[in-house]
Specification:
By secondary structure, this protein is of the alpha/beta class. The protein has 7 helices and 17 strands. Helices cover 23% and strands 22% of the residues. Strand 1, helix 1 and strand 2 form a beta-alpha-beta unit. It binds flavin-adenine dinucleotide (FAD).
C-alpha cells in the first residue's frame, strides 16, 4: 500500500506539495493534487492512515453520504483512495521541524533519513485531546508526567477507542469537563455498568440533549481539585478519571514559519483557499479550526487547498 520514495534534492524541491497529516483533510488534499497531475507526498506520524476517524469505532452519523459506516471504515476508505491515486506515503513519520528553504520548504522528522523538500506545504495535523496539565485543577506544577500528557493507569484523556476498550463494570468514575464529550462519555460509562459516575464541570457548555440525560445528582458544578496519581477528585476516591478538556492543535513543529495563530493556537487561514499568511503554506481541517470540525469539512478543506496550490503553480509557470 505504501511507497517509500527516496528524497533526493536535485537543484530544487522534490515534490509539489508535502502534506503533513494523514487524516481526512490531508488525505483529501493529497488525492486531489495527485488527480490534478501534481506530485504530492504525505507524511503521517502514526503507523496507520485515517487520523481521528481511526479512533472512532462508532457509526459516522454526521456524514450524509456514508450511512451505516463506522469511523474506522471511513479511515480505511481514505487509505484506499490514497493508494488508488498513487500518493507516496510515509507512515510512522512524525514531522519535527519545517522551515522555508530555497523557494520551498524543508521538512525533518522521525523516519526521514534526510530532509525532504517541497514547493508547497500543507499542514493537516489536526488536534489532540488537551490533557490535565501542571498548575491545572490542583495538579502540582513541575509534574513531568502531566507536562508530557502522560499519567499512571486509571486516567483517560479524550474520547475514542481507549474509552471503548475500558471495562467500566463496577467502577467509580470521575469525568472532568463540561462539554459534549464529557457528558456523552459520562453517559457511556453509566450505560456500560459503572458503579457510579460523577461529572465535575466549572461550567456546562454541552448540548441539552446530553445534559438532560445525566441525573443531576451526578454533576458537581464549580471549581474542584484533582490528584491524578492518588486518583482522587475533591478528596473522593475513583477507579477511573476521564479528562475531557477539549482539543489543542498539533502545530509546534511549524513554529519556525511564524504563522498567525488564534488565542487557542489554531492556524489563521483564508477561508476560501486555506492559505496561511506564509505564501505556499496551507492549513486544513481541525488544525485551522473550521466551523464545525468533522470529516466532511476536513475533506472540503483538502480540496480547497489542492485547487489553490494548482492555481499558484500554474500562475508561477506563466
Ligand atoms: C471519538 C471521535 C468521534 C468522531 N466522530 C465523528 C463522526 O462520526 N463524524 C465526523 O464527521 N467526524 C467525527 N469526528 C471528528 C473527525 O474525526 C475530525 O473532525 C476529523 O478527523 C479531522 O480531520 P483532520 O484531517 O483535520 O485531522 P485528524 O483526523 O486529527 O488527522 C490529523 C493527522 O495528523 C497526524 N499528525 C499530527 N501531528 C503530526 C506530525 N507532526 N507529523 C506527522 N503527522 C502528524 C495525526 O497522527 C493524524 O493522523 C470524531 C472525532 C472523535 C475523536
Amino acid at each position: 500500500m505504501t511507497n517509500f520514495p527516496k528524497p533526493v534534492r536535485a537543484g530544487g524541491p522534490n515534490y509539489d506539495a508535502a502534506i503533513i497529516g494523514g487524516g481526512p483533510a490531508g488525505a483529501s488534499c493529497a488525492v486531489w493534487l495527485a488527480r490534478l497531475g501534481f506530485s504530492p507526498v504525505l507524511l503521517e506520524g502514526r503507523d496507520v492512515l485515517g487520523g481521528l476517524c481511526r479512533v472512532n469505532p462508532f457509526l459516522d452519523e454526521w456524514n450524509a453520504s456514508l450511512p451505516g459506516m463506522t469511523g474506522a471504515q471511513v479511515a480505511d476508505n481514505l487509505a484506499l483512495s490514497l493508494r488508488r491515486a498513487g500518493v507516496p506515503v510515509y507512515l510512522s513519520c512524525t514531522v519535527k521541524h519545517v522551515e522555508a528553504a530555497d523557494g520551498g520548504f524543508a521538512l525533518t522528522g522521525s523516519g526521514l533519513a534526510e530532509p525532504l523538500w517541497a514547493s508547497h506545504l500543507v499542514l493537516a495535523t489536526g488536534v489532540r485531546a488537551r490533557p490535565l496539565a501542571p498548575g491545572m485543577d490542583g495538579v502540582p506544577s513541575g509534574d513531568a508526567a502531566a507536562a508530557a500528557g502522560r499519567w499512571t493507569e486509571g486516567v483517560l484523556t479524550g474520547p475514542g477507542e481507549h474509552v471503548v476498550a475500558q471495562d467500566f463494570r463496577g467502577k467509580r468514575v470521575a469525568v472532568l469537563g463540561g462539554g459534549d464529550n464529557a457528558f456523552e462519555n459520562a453517559l457511556y460509562a453509566l450505560e456500560k455498568g459503572a458503579a457510579s459516575v460523577r461529572l465535575y464541570a466549572r461550567n456546562v457548555r454541552a448540548q441539552q440533549q446530553f445534559v438532560s440525560k445525566l441525573p443531576g445528582d451526578c454533576v458537581t458544578l464549580g471549581p474542584y481539585s484533582v490528584d491524578a496519581r492518588a486518583r482522587t477528585v475533591d478528596g473522593r476516591d475513583y477507579d477511573l478519571i476521564m479528562v475531557f478538556y477539549g482539543w489543542e492543535p498539533c502545530v509546534d513543529f511549524a513554529d519556525a514559519l511564524g504563522l498567525q495563530r488564534s488565542a487557542q493556537g489554531f492556524i489563521a487561514t483564508d477561508m476560501r483557499t486555506a492559505q496561511t499568511g506564509c505564501p505556499g503554506v496551507y492549513a486544513i481541517g481541525e488544525v485551522a479550526q473550521r466551523q464545525h470540525p468533522c470529516v466532511v469539512t476536513a475533506l472540503a478543506d483538502g480540496v480547497a487547498a489542492a485547487k489553490a496550490i494548482q492555481a499558484r503553480i500554474e500562475a508561477r509557470a506563466r
